[in-house]
Each structure stands twice: as C-alpha cells, then as structure tokens.
Specification:
By secondary structure, the chain is α+β, with helices and mostly antiparallel strands. About 40% of the residues lie in helices and about 10% in strands. It has a 5-stranded mixed beta sheet.
C-alpha cells in the first residue's frame, strides 16, 4: 500500500511539474509577443507613441517643446518661425539637414511641426464643412487632415517638410531632390515616412511624402528595413 501511495504521489508531482513547465512556456511566448508589439520607448509620451484614428493623443500638450527658430536657426527655411517642435526631434532633424547639405541637397522648408489639438480640430472641421462626410470612412477613403487629437502634429514629433521651390503638399514632392533624399535617408536620423504609399488602408491617411515622424534611430532603421508602417511595427495594424 505504501509503495502504491508513493507511486501515485510521484505521478501527481510529475503531472504538476509538466503543467508548470507548460505555463512557463505560455508566459514566455506572451512576453515575447508583448515585447515585439510594444518596443522599448512606446510609453504614453515616448518616441513611439501611436497617434491615429483609434489612438487619440492622451495629453493636452507634450513636454519638451522648443521654438523652431531655436532648434534650426537659419539652417533651414521655416514657414512659421514661431512654431515649435520636440527638442530631441528638432536636434535630429537639424543633423539630417546638415548631412543633406554635405551631400549636395539643400532648399528644405519646414511648413508644420507642433500643432495644438484645438487648432488641428479647427482644420478638420473646416475641411468637413467644405466636404461633408470627409473622414467618415478613412480606411477606404483616406484623408489628408485628421481630427484634433488624432493628428501626430499634436505630439511635436512630426514634421511636414517641403522645398523652397516646391511648396505643394502633394505626390509630386516625392520626385523632388529633397523628397527623394528624405525618403532614402531620413531613417538614419530617427525619422520615418509616416504615411507611405500602399499603407492607406491601415493608416487611414493618404500617401504623404512630406510628413516625417521622429521615432528614434533604432526603430527608424527597423521600420525602414521592414517596409512596415508604424501601426504594423507596433502590432496595431
């Protein structure tokens, strides 16, 4: 009887051990998935914050803004020198423009950086007044102007970059020397082309070859190499 009891106890112990091992394996798999879907720095106000139709910005105004004139001086043409930008993003963009100049590409113009959510909402409402139904179905009919808290410009991490001799925010900018250089090199400085061609059904935004978003050097390199948009990179597509 005693031997049988010991045998049963060993069987129960083995079964419990197997369950524990399985639980650890499942936990490890979940952890790996979470770390892939939420890369380091994706905290609420970090470099990888996702702001889109389903993820409105969670704050009224971001920290760490500096004036555009302070960030860039006369290194690049500023359509609105009184505007502002995230300090880290501004420093990275300045390095980017300086590198472009060394490679023979100049004439960049920053048209927009930080916008308040309230101002962005005014722009969106004005667009809807002109075009009733604008933004009702963005994943099938992508837009150019987003609602207030759904715009990346409210983070201070996004820059609209055109050229002094090409000031139209349209597809043609992609063929300019400035547009080509940025699309091929911006990732080296931590920026991504935020709304790439072919991803409109995911982003809900038209192809915008002028809109660049700062995410940090490591993430930018990975996103550029993968061909993913930010939603895909963060596992939110």
């Amino acid at each position: 009887m005693e031997k049988r009891r010991k045998k049963i106890n060993r069987h129960v112990l083995s079964k419990r051990l197997a369950i524990a091992v399985l639980a650890l394996a499942v936990a490890a798999a979940i952890f790996l998935r979470l770390t892939r879907e939420t890369p380091a720095g994706a905290e609420a106000d970090g470099r990888l914050i996702l702001v889109n139709w389903t993820n409105p910005v969670p704050f009224d105004k971001p920290h760490g803004l500096v004036g555009l004139d302070e960030a860039f001086g006369d290194a690049v043409y500023l359509l609105n020198p009184e505007g502002s930008v995230n300090e880290e993003a501004g420093a990275a963009a300045l390095a980017m423009f300086e590198a472009a100049k060394k490679e023979g590409v100049t004439g960049f113009m920053i048209t927009t950086a930080y916008r308040s959510a309230s101002y962005q909402e005014e722009l969106y409402k004005a667009r809807r007044e002109r075009e009733p139904g604008y933004g009702d179905d963005p994943f099938n009919n992508p837009v150019k102007v987003l609602p207030g808290r759904c715009s990346e410009h409210t983070t201070g991490l996004a820059l609209d970059i055109l050229a002094e001799d090409y000031r139209s925010a349209d597809n043609g900018y992609a063929s300019t020397p400035q547009g080509k250089w940025l699309s091929e090199n911006a990732y080296r400085f931590g920026f991504i082309l935020r709304y790439p061609e072919g991803k409109e059904s995911i982003t809900g935004v038209i192809f915008e070859p002028w809109h660049f978003r700062y995410v940090g050097a490591d993430a930018a390199k990975e996103i550029y190499a993968s061909g993913e948009c930010l939603e895909e990179y963060l596992g939110q597509a």
